[in-house]
Amino acid sequence: MLKVEHISKTFQTDKGEVKAVRDVSFEVADGEIYGLIGLSGAGKSTVVRCLNLLERPEEGTIYFNGENLASLPDRELRKRRKDIGMIFQHFNLFEQKNVFENIAFPLRRLRMNSTEIKKRADELLQYIDLEEKREAYPSELSGGQKQRVAIARALATNPKLILSDEGTSALDPETTQSILTLLKDSVKKFGVSIVMITHQMEVAKEICDRIGVMEGGEIIEEGTVEELFLHPKEKRTFKFIQKLRDEVEDISVDAYEGKLYRLSFDNVNVSTPVISHLSRLFDVDINILAGNMNALRSGQVGYLIIEFLGAEEEKDKAIAYLGEQGVYVEAM
Ligand SMILES: Nc1ncnc2c1ncn2[C@@H]1O[C@H](COP(=O)(O)OP(=O)(O)O)[C@@H](O)[C@H]1O
Ligand SMILES: [Mg+2]
């Protein structure tokens, strides 16, 4: 539904040129949630602003349902924009309008008649479960409620694509979860595709079908969550993910008597209690030091850091067994 081909965007600033986006290409399928992750300044927001031509890339082409957006006259482009909804980190609601009017706003712009506007806005209010806040103003809402209203507003014109630029970054973990659930539901219920920009790995893991990792204006690697986490092709991707991992674990290899291993789990094997089998099948002891298992859309992935105690040959056998079960083993 969306095909981005070789777009580049350079900004002229007082300090010279900033190449914000360099030769970026990716595709998003119908009903797909595509993530762009990267550190601050990587170029994510600029890519998203190019997608609805708020920013014109100086090179490259964006096809939206087969149409080259840049080739459309302004009047046509304005019509197409109703097919692309947007949500932001700071919600960007109209503070002077109540919840109902915020959701109705894009419909009024389309000059829909007021009976239809009321019907559609009320449907969406019900969908986001905020009917009791119909007359409330944004200042009376929590962050999560504001983002729900923003999502309803983005969905009002029946868009085919939703762009979320750090849509959950200002929310606490619990609220983030509820917003992610709402976005996933929206894919199912309305058939939208989503481009999800985030610097939060947890968000990307939870919701994205595929992810592009951005650094220095480029997509340095693209793949499913499993591919990027377990078998990154690029050293830079590995480093990037490692950086995020290191935030949660701080284990000193030297502090342990036994040898330390990192076990990476793919979807395939989580149903078998592999670890508890190990000590029974082989003469080894296992000490679990750290870990992080995540429920993903397609199953579970994660890793465990373990200490192996036992004779060398028993350890080798145990490691071979892990390999047979599809567990990826790295010595630390
Ligand atoms: N309008 C602009 N003018 C000049 N530089 C910009 C502009 N927008 C973004 N940049 C620069 O482009 C780079 C990428 O920014 P951005 O797309 O916002 O990254 P991200 O969203 O990944 O944090 C940064 O170096 C930023 O300073
Ligand atoms: Mg940004």
Please explain how this structure is put together:
The protein is an alpha/beta fold and 332 residues long. It is built from 11 helices and 14 strands. The strands form 3 sheets. It has a 6-stranded mixed β-sheet with strand order 6-7-8-3-9-10, sandwiched between helices. Helix 5 (143-155) packs parallel to helix 6. The model has no long low-confidence stretch (mean pLDDT 87). Magnesium ion binds at residues 44-45.
SSE string, helices as H and strands as E: EEEHEEHEHHHEHEHEEHHEHEEHE
CATH class of the largest domain: Alpha Beta
- Biggest sheet, spatial arrangement of strands: 6-7-8-3-9-10
Structural class: alpha/beta
List strands and helices in order, with pairings.
Elements: E1 2-13, E2 16-28, E3 33-37, H1 44-51, E4 59-64, E5 67-68, H2 74-81, E6 84-88, H3 99-109, H4 114-127, H5 143-155, E7 161-165, H6 173-190, E8 193-198, H7 201-207, E9 210-215, E10 218-223, H8 225-230, H9 235-246, E11 259-265, H10 274-281, E12 284-296, E13 299-310, H11 312-324, E14 328-331
Parallel strand pairs: 3-8, 3-9, 6-7, 7-8
Antiparallel strand pairs: 1-2, 1-4, 4-5, 9-10, 11-13, 11-14, 12-13
Short characterization:
The protein has 332 residues and is of the alpha/beta class. The protein folds into 2 domains: 2-241, P-loop containing nucleotide triphosphate hydrolases (Rossmann fold, 3-Layer(aba) Sandwich), CATH 3.40.50.300; 248-331, Alpha-Beta Plaits (2-Layer Sandwich), CATH 3.30.70.260. It is 36% helix and 31% strand.
